[in-house]
């Protein structure tokens, strides 16, 4: 293209692996990025879940420096469609744009996306309001649609005592009493180093399975490919300060474990496991994790504590605000009928699944980590101003 921008497309997994350093630099230079756009997360997901020949990374370089990236893959549903990497186990999807030239990078990325799409519709799910994709939407020359996606609940990223002030006096008093009981029991959280991540992930998944035994655990969380993805991605992310693995111990035993993913502006508690013993002892695990996440948010100077996708009643105990994710459909000029057909199918699917009231979604549907059919696996996330398995790839 004109100017000093070069647009390319990566379809080779070895080239994807070699992009790690450049991708990390771009990820840290994009203010809207979440941990789910990091190279370790996306590359590891592709190794576990990708289909050979379907990778479609659209890359933009300026004077040799990576300034934009769209991590996509080709799927058939049954017509061809380009979708984000990450599938149903990824909470937020977005493109990456360098903050030094976001508009120019978006314009160049549009050129690459149009070339990659050809006759396919581009279907971008779970896009947070204010994400980089919105710049791409503004520059897109062809037909486009904006649809509602999953609801997210958010709190301000303030110290935990300030979160308690949002509650009625009686509710705050009960929460403080539960936390005093937790502290009296002697439950302590300790960060896990990179070398201990594989064992810690295995412990987390074991506790997660015990936690939901007999109550409908998400099947994907029991599969080896999911464990392999978490170990592979978390080790690298812990090494670079992009994740924090925490074990909670009681009398020297690990009774809970949490994996928190982080970017410069977001820290999200992705998955946890808690021994049933804690429930039997009336330990408020949600409050324990929320306090843990609030401390991480304060340490990183973030602005928003997000409870992520899903509208579960227990989240409303903390009086959060509701923010609706978005879904963008893009097509090249002349393909309006195909885009309209895809949009109609998406709307019909959402009506069947009950997305309008936050209870679920159809194509690429997720389950909560409690097993309840909602729009995402339930957990905590912190962001500043964050299935029954992955989406099918054919």
UniProtKB/TrEMBL annotation:
Entry-linked Pfam families: Acetyltransf_6
Domain of life per record: Bacteria
Q: Which InterPro entries match?
A: Acyl_CoA_acyltransferase, BioF2-like_GNAT_dom
Compositional bias, Polar residues, is annotated for: 362-394
BioF2-like acetyltransferase domain location: 172-316
Q: Where is this region: Disordered?
A: 359-394
**Protein name in UniProt:** GNAT family N-acetyltransferase
């Amino acid at each position: 293209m004109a100017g000093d921008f070069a647009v390319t497309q990566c379809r080779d997994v070895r080239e994807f692996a070699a992009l790690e350093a450049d991708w990390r630099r771009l990820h840290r230079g994009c203010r809207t990025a979440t941990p789910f756009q990091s190279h370790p997360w996306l590359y590891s997901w592709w190794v576990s879940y990708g289909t050979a020949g379907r990778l479609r990374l659209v890359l933009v370089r300026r004077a040799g420096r990576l300034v934009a990236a769209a991590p996509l893959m080709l799927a058939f549903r049954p017509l061809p469609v380009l979708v984000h990497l990450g599938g149903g186990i990824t909470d937020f999807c977005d493109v990456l744009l360098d903050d030094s030239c976001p508009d120019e990078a978006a314009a160049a990325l549009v050129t690459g996306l149009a070339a990659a799409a050809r006759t396919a519709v581009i279907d971008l799910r779970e896009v947070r309001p204010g994400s980089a994709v919105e710049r791409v939407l503004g520059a897109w020359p062809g037909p486009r649609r904006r649809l509602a996606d999953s609801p997210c609940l958010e709190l301000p990223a303030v110290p935990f005592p300030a979160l308690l002030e949002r509650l009625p006096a009686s509710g705050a008093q009960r929460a403080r009493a539960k936390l005093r009981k937790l502290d009296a029991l002697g439950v302590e959280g300790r960060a896990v180093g990179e070398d201990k991540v594989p064992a810690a992930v295995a412990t987390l998944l074991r506790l997660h399975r015990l936690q939901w035994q007999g109550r409908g655990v998400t099947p994907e969380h029991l599969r080896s490919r999911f464990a392999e993805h978490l170990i592979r991605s978390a080790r690298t992310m812990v090494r670079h300060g992009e994740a924090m693995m925490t074990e909670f111990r009681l009398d020297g035993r690990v009774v809970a474990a949490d994996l928190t993913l982080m970017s410069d502006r977001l820290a999200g508690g992705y998955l946890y496991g808690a021994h049933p013993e804690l429930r039997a002892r009336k330990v408020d695990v949600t409050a324990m994790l929320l306090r843990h996440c609030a401390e991480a948010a304060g340490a990183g100077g973030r602005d928003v504590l997000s409870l992520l996708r899903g509208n579960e009643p227990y989240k409303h105990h903390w009086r959060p605000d509701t923010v609706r994710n978005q879904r963008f459909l893009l097509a090249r000029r002349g393909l309006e009928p195909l885009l309209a057909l895809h949009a109609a199918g998406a709307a019909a699917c959402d009506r069947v699944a009950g997305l309008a009231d936050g209870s679920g979604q159809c194509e690429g549907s997720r389950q909560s980590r409690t097993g309840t059919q909602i729009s995402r696996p339930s957990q905590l996330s912190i962001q500043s101003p964050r299935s029954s398995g992955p989406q099918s790839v054919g």
